[in-house]
Amino acid sequence: FKSLTHQLQQLANSCSNIHCSQKMSQKIPNLTSLTLESSETPNQLKNVSEFLRKIGMNMDTKDIQRVGKKLGMPEDEIYELIEPNYHLLKKLVENKKGNFQRLSNLMNQIQDQLNNERIKELTAIALASNNRDALGALGNFNLSDALKSAQQIGGQEGENKMVSCLSAGSGENLLKQWFIHRKDLPETTKQKVKELAKKMLIELGIYYSRARLGSSTTGPVPINIVRPYSIGDDFENIDLEETINNLLEKGKKLDHIEYDDFYVFETAKGLRTACFELDVSGSMTGDKLTYMAISMTMLCYGLRKDELGITFFESDTHVLKELDEKINLEKIADELLSVTARGGTKIQSALEWANKQFKEHSNSREKLNVLFTDAEVSDIKEAMEEFRKMRSLNVDFILVCPENSYNLKEAKKMVKAAGGQLLTIKSWNEFPKLISDIIKSGLVSAGTTENRNSGERLFNSFDSGI
Predict the structure, then answer these.
(1) More confident call, 276 vs 187
(2) Is the CB of residue 378 less than 8 Å from the CB of residue 435?
(3) Which residues form a coiled coil (predicted)?
(4) Distance between CA 284 and CA 242 in Å, rounded?
């Protein structure tokens, strides 16, 4: 019902036929009621009402009350859905009723009502009652204002208490707040928050790595050669199809099968090699820097047994990790949290660095290069030779661009010269998933035709620009 309501609203707004548009608009209130009634749990009702409010739909108060009561929701929670406002938030903080998530959701719903004075008022109430959920929600909503308010009200003790409550929630929001407000924080406070953000970044990187990369990305990998099984080979490398064909050709009975009747994939010597060049020019703030930092931490942990190189670039190139450099998560997380958006975009030296890594420091036959940029570069002519060199080194090349803002013409030139593929992403929170899917795809698998096709199937599931 949510999707149907939204689609009907969009059709009614865009329809050029006034009579048709009016007819559709008349049906929307009824569909809105059905959308609310489709909720089976209090959380579903909260999500539905928040969604409808976000797209500008007017909900009938009686519908919300009726469905809320049917689902057994307390009256204050029902009222919160009907008319979320500052006075309700203040009451929840005073009475220590809402948990971190509930308070955070309400703050996001009424963010236009939360100015500096109101944040200060809520901070004073939370400090006085030691409401840690409220302090954490305030810090995750506006880090700079919350810390300043805590310091003004409670001095160093108040500031320390606010910092100690910032770890509430998933951690992603704290990282966003760090990248948005770090320039406004006093130096002593900044270091404390950075240490907490670093801890959260490492934990998130490890979590994303285990959840998205698993253990399939490390160690020797199969190549397109099979041979008879030898004692000590890994059973997981047995090629069932080749083994069955071999047994059928020999006409062997089950009790006559020997070890060398099984066929196994030969494994490549050396490990996977992957280089990442990340564009940090322009307005790289908030969400962009957060999910880029999480993705790189995820890779550093997940590919710690492989060869991984990472560099940032704008008008200059800043190497985070060389291919043959041992991984120090603490150091890498610290540097990621210090990355700032800078001036123009020059790509040639970053590509030159990557080619040098592949040529001089790689011991693997599998080579992957991922370039992230909007393709608005000032030295595209100078960079073309580096793209061609990368192709000659048999490197699988992927260009990732933000869907809503990139230069398609220049992007096409890049992937054509490198013999690679172009991917686009709609939302920054998709970045870790996209990167992990690239790593796990068949593209990083000895360049066989079969594996390249599986890689293409993966990329077709994203929005490819070519």
Answers:
(1) 276
(2) no
(3) 93-120
(4) 50
Question: Tokens 């970044």 label which residue?
Answer: 201
Phi, psi of 13 (to 5 degrees): -75, -30
The yes-or-no verdict on residue 87 having pLDDT over 50 is yes
Question: Predicted confidence band at 80 (pLDDT cuts at 50, 70, 90)?
Answer: confident
Nearest to 344 by CA among 371, 370, 372, 317: 317
- Under 8 Å between Cβ of 98 and 106: yes
Among 72-86, 155-169, 385-399, the minimum mean pLDDT is found in 72-86
CA distance 120 to 295: 35
- The C-alpha angle with vertex 164 and arms to 160 and 169, in degrees rounded to 5, equals 145
Q: Domain spans of the chain?
A: 1-83, 222-267, 273-464
Mean pLDDT over the full length of the chain: 85
CA-to-CA distance for 387 and 323, rounded, in angstroms? 19
CATH architecture of structural domain 273-464: 3-Layer(aba) Sandwich (3.40)
Q: How far is CA 100 from CA 20, 167, 194, in A?
A: 45, 11, 21
pTM for this prediction: 0.71
126: its two tokens = 């939370």
